[in-house]
Design goal:
The complex is a heterodimer of chains A (about 300) and B (about 120). By secondary structure, chain A is of the alpha+beta class. Chain A folds into two domains: about 5-200, q2cbj1_9rhob like domain (Jelly Rolls), CATH 2.60.120; about 210-300, no CATH class. Chain A has five helices and 14 strands. Chain B folds into two domains: about 1-30; about 45-120, no CATH class. Chain B is built from three helices and six strands, in the order ααβββαβββ. In chain B, a hairpin with a 2-residue loop joins strand 2 (about 60-65) and strand 3. The longest helix of chain B has 15 residues, at about 1-15. The chains are: A alpha+beta (about 300), B alpha+beta (about 120). The interface of A and B includes residues 156 and 158 of A.
Chain lengths: ~300, ~120
């Protein structure tokens, strides 16, 4: 098997995992040391190809970027123990200024599934202001079906998020998230490294799981009430919950009862648990600890 | 467009008076074309909205004109139209309404930005 399984501690809680399911990305600003950012930039100047895989052979890079503690804590939470480290990477290196040359898209190979078997990561080794043409992401768009050839005519979207960030920032993304390049008005070179991590373990709520978390109190709605305007009102809770359900090791088939049942009724302190999946029901003496011994997933 | 209408009405009056000339009609033609005498190409405006109402909020925008495809201002507050209705008041005409067939698959899937109006001038 190519790729090295990585072991580390998870850093996300139940709420954090639900938040990732909702948004489809996590931002870690300036988590790579400046010295490594400088060495990376210098290395990429000497290796300006689109796939500078040689850098993966540099221990200073591999340890600080690929095995970055902040990033791998998130990856460990979402992909489980022993996830595979990347063996290839690409560099979206651009000479600025430049006009936008690619529209909104999902990367090739993106599929629609509640599974989360891999994550795509972006790393900026230099300060990347708006003028250096950072990638723009569309939150929650991993739930929107779209084929690249049928998305090219989309222009500015109200809810797009610019990833302008300081040097050493890492973005962990759902592979299906819509994204695009933006125009760069400044002068100079901008590097953007992109690589993926892969799951090897079965999912099983393998993060910082709190035994007292009540699945009726988790909020699965992306955006403010009644939800992200790009998605169906309230109904948009369902794919979020389905993804979380799969990550908890409960399978891909989450039955939605309909109406104001779980997960639509969750997260607002309502005195109901209609539609709550049996695996999330309270156990015995615990008043709200839904994660009982029947749960197939491991705990830290 | 108002100028052209006025010119045509003047031509009708001249026709009734027996005074209409080829020059009069050529002047109308010139107004239908651009200032350089060439035809003005169709302009397109893509607006994606929150729902199928023409008064719902625009969530995505792009333009096509003689010079190519444009995204419009980056800041949504500066978009020229916040609703399709505002574009209609600016003489854009709808040539395609949101695709209802996108709802025929299942209840949970959302396709594209959903409610897309295509307008022209």
């Amino acid at each position: 098997m190519r790729g090295e399984p990585h072991q580390c501690k998870p850093t996300l809680t139940d709420e954090d995992v639900v938040e990732f399911c909702k948004q489809g990305f996590v931002v870690l600003e300036a988590v790579v040391p400046d010295e490594v950012n400088r060495r990376t930039t210098a290395f990429l100047d000497e290796h300006p190809s689109m796939e500078p895989n040689e850098i993966l052979g540099e221990p200073w890079f591999f340890d600080a970027v690929i095995k970055n503690p902040a990033a791998t804590g998130v990856l460990r939470s979402l992909l489980g123990a022993g996830f595979l480290l990347p063996t290839i990477l690409s560099n979206h290196r651009i000479e600025c200024p430049r006009q936008v040359n690619c529209g909104w898209h999902r990367d090739s190979g993106a599929i629609f599934t509640p599974r989360l078997d891999f994550l795509q990561v972006f790393y900026y080794p230099q300060d990347t202001t708006q003028a250096l043409g950072p990638t723009e992401l569309l939150p929650s768009s991993h739930f929107i079906r779209g084929r690249r050839r049928f998305m090219e005519h989309y222009g500015n979207i109200r809810y797009g998020v610019c990833t302008a960030a300081p040097a050493g920032s890492i973005f962990i993304t759902h592979y299906s998230i819509w994204h695009r390049a933006t125009a760069a008005t400044a002068s100079g070179v901008r590097n953007l490294l992109k690589y993926s991590y892969w799951r090897t373990a079965l999912p099983g709520r393998d993060w910082i799981a709190d035994g007292n978390v009540d699945a009726m109190e988790l909020n699965f709605l992306p955006g403010d009430v009644p939800g992200n305007p790009m998605l169906e009102k309230w109904h948009q809770c369902i794919p979020v919950a389905r993804m979380f359900y799969w990550l908890c090791g409960l399978g891909e088939e989450l039955a939605f009862t309909g109406g104001l049942s779980w997960p639509i009724n969750a997260g607002y302190g309502r005195a109901t648990d209609a539609g709550l999946p049996p695996a999330f029901e309270c156990s015995g003496e615990s008043s709200s600890g839904l994660w009982d011994e029947r749960h197939p997933g491991g705990r830290e | 467009m108002a100028d052209v209408k006025g010119q045509l009405e003047a031509c009708v009056e001249k026709l009734r008076a027996g005074a209409l000339t080829a020059h009069d009609l050529r002047q109308v033609l010139e107004h239908l074309n651009g200032v350089d005498g060439t035809a003005v190409p169709q302009r397109l405006l893509y607006l994606q909205t929150e729902n199928t109402l023409v008064t719902s909020k625009v969530i995505g925008i792009s333009f096509v004109d003689r010079d190519g495809v444009h995204d419009g201002p980056d800041d949504p507050a500066e978009w020229p139209y916040q609703t399709v209705h505002e574009a209609l008041l600016d003489e854009w005409r709808i040539i395609k309404f949101p695709e209802m067939a996108l709802m025929m698959s299942d209840e949970e899937s959302t396709y594209g930005l959903g409610c897309e109006f295509i307008l022209e001038k």
